[in-house]
Amino acid sequence: xxxxxxxxxxxxxxxxxxxxxxxxxxxxxxxxxxxxxxxxxxxxxxxxxxxxxxxxxxxxxxxxxxxxxxxxxxxxxxxxxxxxxxxxxxxxxxxxxxxxxxxxxxxxxxxxxxxxxxxxxxxxxxxxxxxxxxxxxxxxxxxxxxxxxxxxxxxxxxxxxxxxxxxxxxxxxxxxxxxxxxxxxxxxxxxxxxxxxxxxxxxxxxxxxxxxxxxxxxxxxxxxxxxxxxxxxxxxxxxxxxxxxxxxxxxxxxxxxxxxxxxxxxxxxxxxxxxxxxxxxxxxxxxxxxxxxxxxxxxxxxxxxxxxxxxxxxxxxxxxxxxxxxxxxxxxxxxxxxxxxxxxxxxxxxxxxxxxxxxxxxxxxxxxxxxxxxxxxxxxxxxxxxxxxxxxxxxxxxxxxxxxxxxxxxxxxxxxxxxxxxxxxxxxxxxxxxxxxxxxxxxxxxxxxxxxxxxxxxxxxxxxxxxxxxxxxxxxxxxxxxxxxxxxxxxxxxxxxxxxxxxxxxxxxxxxxxxxxxxxxxxxxxxxxxxxxxxxxxxxxxxxxxxxxxxxxxxxxxxxxx
Amino acid sequence: xxxxxxxxxxxxxxxxxxxxxxxxxxxxxxxxxxxxxxxxxxxxxxxxxxxxxxxxxxxxxxxxxxxxxxxxxxxxxxxxxxxxxxxxxxxxxxxxxxxxxxxxxxxxxxxxxxxxxxxxxxxxxxxxxxxxxxxxxxxxxxxxxxxxxxxxxxxxxxxxxxxxxxxxxxxxxxxxxxxxxxxxxxxxxxxxxxxxxxxx
Lengths: 562, 200
Known about the structure:
A: alpha/beta; B: mainly alpha
């Protein structure tokens, strides 16, 4: 069935970048169709952040057997809990394969809003330390843009998102346009001061920078500190497509949002050299549909967008649409984590936290910034924070009775965790292809992912455990437990790099405005576009790139170039 | 209406005609009634009684509700029936059996018929066994029941404390848990009025 409407633009995906593309394109006057593979989300019905544990069947212990059956991969994500499991896909319906010795953890959310409903909300600007790294070290290819190209777009998206944080003036981590910062807690203040005292100005502990409102912002309300953002937010205090960008797009009257629309492939017209349409399978009726538009924005995530292009081969593009470079699907990266340390921080027993702050601490990158480390290239930042232990500590104590009950009903010792997020180098040999033996629930070929961390990532992870432990030791911590766990890539849920930007069409898929070198009216603005990975959380950069690409597309349309 | 209440009502949907706070109260009461009327599915009557007595020894009723006030044994039965796999379920039921065997051997009665002092001695013995059998690395700081726990008593404590502190009575009375705290302060004195709140 063909929809006779020709839209000005089609946006594929309604997650963090699809929401931005929808907002920007509709606000600029384009009639825009947003295709989302999953179900609609109605905040008043779907959000569950205020449902207490006692109203959950397993009291927060999850429906273990069901998850083992339906979500063995998704349930490894902390946010896929008894409340929020519904915001993650069924692994049965959404298979993918890997090499036996190279596991990859692919965490997915298919619903309006995508993973922006359950994301970690940490937002950090990149700097030229990141944009120049490949060039400086002769790794992969150079970024075609620099910080100055993106800075006004960071400003632009941040003003709409609303970001809490503390300005530090660090060159390696430019400040955002901040709402007031959240408070550090007692243990964090203590560790912050110890780090400043023992490690000089190179290492700084600050409050996390998060897409959460600390005061009312536009139509959205300030955070009320209930805690579990990943279950939704009825006051729209954290940023997501559902909470912010999609309502803005809706308001223009120019958005058609179509849920249950599983994109199968794109149509390519070899005469006009344009992507002319999108083939869709209706997730419920299984009907085949087709939609047409002047411009197509792929915002389905680094892996899904590539899967669609690989499934859209033509005689001219036998290895995937817009893949004359051969780089489509290659250079897959994900931040290396699972390195750090935890400890007990003595003191402050008479003090505590009030309210559940949905944010942690941040230690900006300090390796290979001013002084060069010899063990590895690039660096990492720490997230984590302090908290007082709860009643759970009573499980392995041996006490019982009234005194025991009174004791564990009180807050326990202060604990502290540093968990690193490290840069992953681009590597052509980390790639995805279609697995023609495996199809998803709609008959679309699944991805086969070939990806493993290299020596540099493993050296970074090891260093995380050492520097985390030494900072905790400087703070007088007890029971310091360093860790460097062998977790596979995918665990950070920051997959990127599979359709990289570049100046040369022979070595890159996209130009500096996220436009496919091969197909002018095709844009990819999700994590696929990234040329390197930095060590900071990438979503803010995806959003800035998306807004910038939409602006460029409009200019090109006006010039008649699209 | 307070902001906090308004937020909560918004969150849980108020399309129904009943005044929402009444509706919740009614639903909660209805659930309690159903829970208390349902016979255990895995625990037999004696095992169920043993769990209740043990849980009340661990978390007795004081100035705040205790284990039996919040239906700990119902949660234990649910978890044994629908959450744990067979080896863990057997470990738990065998553990309960051992509690009686030990009490029989020492005092000549089943556990639930022994005096409170003697029951306490049995719990102390279970605690010593747990410390010996569960190495520190396998003592998780989070409460999620972990399949594969090798010790009956750590399973029992995990289930009992989870059932108690995640119940409405336990969370709101013993921990002063508030669904919507409204504000956040990073480092304040433990408020004496709340007897040491744990609302983080």
